[in-house]
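Deliverable D5.2: sample structural annotation.
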Amino acid sequence: MRKIIFTLCILLSTSIFSQVKFGLKFSPNVSLTSVHADSVWKSNAAGMRFVGGMFADISLTDNAALNIGLEYTPKRIGLKFDQTTSSYNLQYVQLPVGLKFFTNEFADRFKIYFLFAPNLALKISEKSSSGNQKYIANSGNYTVDIVKYADEKKKSAFNLFDIGLNFGVGTEIRVGESTHLFGGFSYNRGLINAINLSLDGSNGKLYKEARINTGAINLDLGVKF
């Protein structure tokens, strides 16, 4: 009986493993800042960043898979207050969990895929890259650099977590019995206001006037095996 159970477990684990494809991904991207505010806050240009990570496609049907990943994701936030600019480098560990849909294989080796993957991002670092700039107004001097202002308050300038949506499309090409290369484009949109709303004081109130969301347009390249 034990032998039968052991054999069934081996067969079951082999069957499950055969339905899983692992992959590595490298994505140069354009990191975007979206600002919604009634004040003079505006977004300040975009920046190049690089995302890297691993993922697994777990087959659900011949044309659908559960996509799970683990990614290192740097993001740039660029802000403009009146004529004064500031920028910040944020680093996240990101966990996407979603669905990937495939067309049937054509030309003997090609497939088109479509990806929808909500993700949870954990911030591991935030740094300013703009210097300790000041904005001088009639009502007083404001530290435009959010990170430096938050450091003075012994707080984080940006939220620890973000929740996002990722939409993608691309092509896979089979180059071996079980090896595929892929390339495509995806768009990631953060849904949570990046600003830490617990900031207080005159500057904190100033920052709370803005709702800031991160975004990125990615060129996804990688291998799956």
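Annotation notes: The longest helix spans residues 2-18. The domain at 20-224 is CATH 2.40.160.20 (Porin).
The annotation will be released with the project's public dataset once the embargo ends.
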